[in-house]
Amino acid sequence: MSGPRRQPHWSRRIGHLLLMLAATAFLTIFLALPLAVVFVEAFRRGLHAYLSAIGQHEALMAIRLTLLVAAISVPLNVVFGVAAAWAIARFEFRGKALLGAFIDLPFSVSPVISGLVYVLLFGAQGWFGHWLELHDVKIIFAVPGLVLATIFITLPFVARELIPLMQSQGSDEEEAARVLGAGGWQMFFRVTLPNIRWALLYGVLLCNARAMGEFGAVSVVSGHIRGLTTTMPLEVEMLYNEYDYVGAFAVATLLALLALATLAIKALLEWRYGDEIAAHAPGGH
Amino acid sequence: MTLELSHLSRRFTDYPALDDVSLVIAPGEFLALLGPSGSGKTTLLRILAGLDYPDAGTVQLDGNDFLAAQAHKRKVGLVFQHYALFRHLTVAENVAFGLRVRSRKARPSRTEIAERVQQLLKRVQLDDHGHRYPSQLSGGQRQRVALARALAVEPDLLLLDEPFGALDAQVRVTLRRWLRELHEDLELTTVFVTHDQEEALELADRIAVMNRGRIEQVGSPEAIYQQPATPFVCEFIGKVNKIPLTYANHRLSAGDWVLEGDPWNGRHANVVAYVRPEHLSLVGAHTESGWAARLRHVYLAGSVAHLELYIPSIDQTLEADVAGEDVAALGLQNGAELRVAPRGAIVFALGEQAGDAPAGRWVWQA
What we know:
The structure holds two protein chains of two kinds. Chain A has helices at 10-42, 46-55, 57-90, 96-108, 111-122, 129-134, 143-169, 172-179, 184-213, 216-222, 232-241, 245-273. Chain A is mostly helical. Chain B is α+β, with helices and mostly antiparallel strands. Chain B has two domains: 3-232, 3-Layer(aba) Sandwich (Rossmann fold); 240-365, CATH 2.40.50.100. Chain B has helices at residues 41-49, 91-100, 110-123, 139-152, 169-186, 197-203, 221-226, 231-236, 324-330; strands at 3-11, 16-25, 30-34, 56-61, 64-65, 76-79, 157-161, 189-194, 206-211, 214-219, 241-248, 251-254, 257-258, 271-275, 280-282, 291-301, 304-311, 316-323, 337-342, 344-349, 360-365. A six-stranded mixed sheet of chain B has the order 6-7-8-3-9-10, with helices on both faces. In chain B, strands 13-12-11-14-20-21 form a six-stranded antiparallel sheet. A five-stranded antiparallel sheet of chain B has the order 15-19-16-17-18. The chains are: A mainly alpha, B alpha+beta.
């Protein structure tokens, strides 16, 4: 066809405009505004109030506990995730599909149920409750319970990120390393790990964000003992319920910053090493 | 180092990959494992490399158990079909890998490794590519890096899995010759897997033809081509015309072609003659044994002409290769009436069932 390019009809242009407006409004109301509210409310009484809210003993303890829980559960999940991904991507065995389903379980089970399961197992009235009490081991309403619940919730992140990548890379390079004389660990650290490093980092990032942000499962096993078993999300809820809005939103800003930092690094990784990161990142949060 | 493979069997869940395979690999020999996909040739190679293990059978190296040695103690170099270069390492680092992973006692010094790597890269004509990454190389270059990497550990046995499979035709021919020279220079024992019969015939000292997990025949390229042991080898190596024979009056025949005699005296009902296209020649009208044929097509391929001939008396289309100049001299054209007769054939008495070993073989000469 030749001739001057036709301008789109005015009704179509208005249609486009309305669509864009609708999308922008949606994003503003559901994403940007809530984020803004967090910061606005946190600073409502000024920087001083904000800092003193964060500096409160309970808030500091919550931050410490959150970091501790993440520092224990993320490395454990890295070890488990790499091992599980290796097993699934490299070997054929009975029950492989079952293992895959188990890894996905935390995505499909409500976090509250996950927490409840641990209460039923390790709580005072639970299966092992009596034995644990006899041996003076506290799991529920204590830090071990928080760690267990967090490990369960974040279980899929690393493994699900690695499995598709390791399957697509195949085992040729690892076998080449073996034949060239590398031992098992040499093969792992010199060939396997470098090949999955960015995907692993990506998985760790998501795993960490979830570990620090988890509410449901942790809430059930925590017992909400101020300064002892409240992580940051729990602390936010408790402060809010006590009408301490500045305190609640101040702690919430820290979680929001964590989310923003995670998002930024995630975007950077996707942009820089997109081909080494599984296209379908695990869903779930 | 003589490698002796005896009665190797390997089963995967749904099919036998190796079925009672025995083979002796002589020092310094260039051996091809030739067969279609799924014939077990790669499984055999992986067992030698230590990446897979047989369910039954032994491999001995000069009388010692070779299978008991772990992959990294076998002094074996393996070149993978898709090269399997370490993608995160440079070419030089790839080549150095086998030396760097050695225990401190056995590991050469940093400068020695660098020297060795440089020598090897020179040998594979990539001395100025050491700092590149595998993704920056062409297929042929990657292949040579893979080879240099395998040679760095100074293997006694070099294993190559479809070494030229992923390359274009021109690069393939150059690399083939070059590999042969390398093999002779380094006095290695080399085993390579291929499904390309031309490659095997051109390169190897000996060929082991494999089919469905078994070795059908082991021999020199000449023997494999001229005296195939089984119908499978006949059909897999080169082109061949398959002509069913009938037994009557104490002799075998197919239409007007009479073979005078039958070594089995009619004991086998299912007898087939295999005639190579170059063994089917044009004969004069007075020849007694032979067929009247109609020329369907002439494909002139340089010095050789491929003739497609229809033989009414056996209702088959056969292929014959004649010198290109003969076609011109005889003025052959499509539709011409000719007379042809085989000069030689391999005749098999087949077993009762398809896939059985042949009950007998007769090398027939006119």
